Amino acid sequence: MAPRRESRAMTHETMKTVYAGLRGTGRWHRVARGVTVAAVVCLGVCLGLGCSPPETEVAELVIQATPVADGIYVLTKSGIGGNIGLCVGDDDAFLVDCGDFFVGNLLMPFADEIARTVASVSDRPIGHVVNTHWHADHAGGNADLAIAGAVVIAHENVRERLAAPAGPEAYNVTMPPSEPEALPILTYTDSMTLYRNGEEIHLIHPPNAHTDGDTIVHFRNANVLHLGDLYYNGMYPFSPLDAASGGSVDGTIAALDRALAIGGDDATYIPGHGPVSGAEGVRAARGMLATVRERAAALMQEGRTREEIVAAGLTDEFDATWASPIMTGDAFVGIVYDSLLSHQQTPETDATERAASDDP
């Protein structure tokens, strides 16, 4: 495991110089708690999955804003962290996710760096933040941005999970409850539409997919979709798809089908991790998930054990494209097995559970 880096927590005065109105109240407490918890989470999850913690040290944090459409950017990080969507215009800076990210083996909070990058492309304040789900690498900046005046929006289950101890129970990892400022103050159940910066922004909840609180964010005019961790591009999903997070592999496949039905072939798709793509990238991810799922389910139907299924080489043809040091093919097969077992899925499972909704 890489040596621990020193915290780069910003003082109140430094934060003020980075972005107007972004205050560092409580920052030291959050960073200290975040370092301790993140180290345990990272190590515990990786050991539970049979993969390796991130080893790469980042000498200097860089968050880059890359345009994907008129007024819409993706913010990508030099460390391992979730992609952030950004819509700018006359109203405000509208963010999709605001997560922490790995520096070495620690998940560190850097809302100030997010704000700095936003300020490089817009002179408007960060007014809204949508969480695609509750995980810290996508919602970890909620508290700081809310203190600065942003309205945090999410599916209702995100607020519930952030407000209570939560974590992947299968790996004996539990995150403590978030501070009150981190909780979304505007939630929805099935869908919501917002109008900002000349865009019609549709929020759509696919049930029980990556988690039980996922949101697909569709910028309708530009036809850009941010899919959060429903879509990992070029890597196996580094997260549990089981009952502990309220998600399932079948729900994730159905959510990708739904996203493709919404956006179509001409849309731009922002994944939770990995490069932005067109529809072909989403189809490749969906195909990989479905293939591994069917192979694992067939062996489960034969009565094979988890160890036998993990050792069966179900991902051999995909590993060159999708495997990484922090998520091997074997570890991913274990995730799929656990998801199917928790939902008792077999090849004969009702197809309607994995069908995309006809009404996006």
Query: Order of strands side by side in the largest beta sheet?
Result: 1-2-4-5-8-9-10
Number of helices: 11
Molecular shape: globular
Helix share bin: 25-40%
Please render the helix and strand layout as text.
Blueprint: H1 12-18, H2 27-49, E1 63-69, E2 72-77, E3 80-81, E4 84-88, E5 93-96, E6 101-103, E7 106-108, H3 111-119, E8 126-130, H4 136-139, H5 142-147, E9 151-155, H6 156-163, E10 186-188, E11 191-196, E12 199-204, E13 216-219, E14 224-226, H7 249-263, E15 268-270, H8 279-301, H9 306-310, H10 319-322, H11 329-343
Parallel strand pairs: 5-8, 8-9, 9-10, 14-15
Antiparallel strand pairs: 1-2, 2-4, 3-6, 4-5, 6-7, 11-12, 12-13, 13-14
Search tags:
360 residues; alpha/beta; Metallo-beta-lactamase, Chain A; 7-stranded mixed sheet; 15 strands; 18% strand; disordered N terminus
Kindly describe this structure.
- The chain has 11 helices and 15 strands.
- It has a single domain, classed as Metallo-beta-lactamase, Chain A (4-Layer Sandwich), CATH 3.60.15.10.
- The N terminus is likely disordered.
- With 360 residues, it is α/β, with parallel strands linked by helices.
- 33% of the residues lie in helices and 18% in strands.
- The strands form 3 sheets. The protein has a 7-stranded mixed beta sheet. A 5-stranded mixed beta sheet has the order 11-12-13-14-15, with helices on one face.
